[in-house]
# Entry
Amino acid sequence: MVYFILKRLVQSVFVMLAVALLAFSLFRFVGDPVSQMTGVETTVEDQERLREELGLNDPFPIQFYRFATDMLQGDFGFSYRTRQPVSEMIVTRIPATLELGIVALIISLIIGIPAGVYTALRPRGALTQALLLTTLVGVSIPTFVIGIMLIFFFGVQLGWLPTFGRGGTVDLGVWTTSFLTVDGLRSLILPAITLGVYQLTLTMRLVRAEMMEVMRSDYIRFATARGIPYRQLYYQHALANTMIPVITIIGLQFGGVIAFSIVTESVFQWPGMGLLFLESIRFVDIPVMSVYLVVIAFFFVLVNMAVDLLYLAIDPRLRVKEAA
# Structure
């Protein structure tokens, strides 16, 4: 187990370095940040002086070395647009994005797993066909269209739920949460549903496919012949083996929810990291864009490591392999 964790940590270091290099390289071609920071009245000499102060005239290897070493020391630099520390900007936006992603993932799991089991056990039922048709429609419609439809129906026509913003929040010191206010919870419903629809359909269809595959296996037939009750057979034996590959998808889903919440946050003006990333693109704020991608990659690395450890805890064959 210790060797496995150390191996994953070493791999994670190289992954993070590669992501940092890729992010820092790509955003050099999105535009000139100095032209965005200065007005038309700024002289060429002042622009060159500002470019020299920001280190934009240095060779690329020196710029990347400075960027990487500063990040390793916990210094993410300053925003070109606001002159605020990027770390403070990210920290203030992380709670909104994480809470949105957690609620969206919970919605997808609470609905997706039972629906997947039901449609696998009753493949020809009328409700199964209705669920499959609904998920097909849900996965085919773009996320921003789903968000706009929810806003129009529940926000504009019925007036039940807020259509933008995070609502009321409670400051807990290091964390600002929407979970402790009614207004915050109401504001969370529509964007969480919008973000969770695609994850829900993917979870349901994956659980259904894996459950049907497991139900055709020999050990399930043998357990049925022994007279094991169907409830125990379905939910203790079949579902447990079904969840082994599903865990990987669920872990990647959470990373994807955090990474691809940009569209949802833009539609609902949700003050998270995705909206910050869009604003940084608009103003060519290279430090914010680069740090955002590095933070997202760090989330994926953590999630993948957690999934690997869950694999070891669930599947005894992997523990024997690692021990060997």
Q: What stands out?
A: The mean pLDDT is 80. The domain at 92-282 is CATH 1.10.3720.10 (MetI-like fold). The beta strands are 170-171, 176-177. Residues 49 and 218 are 74 Å apart (CA to CA).
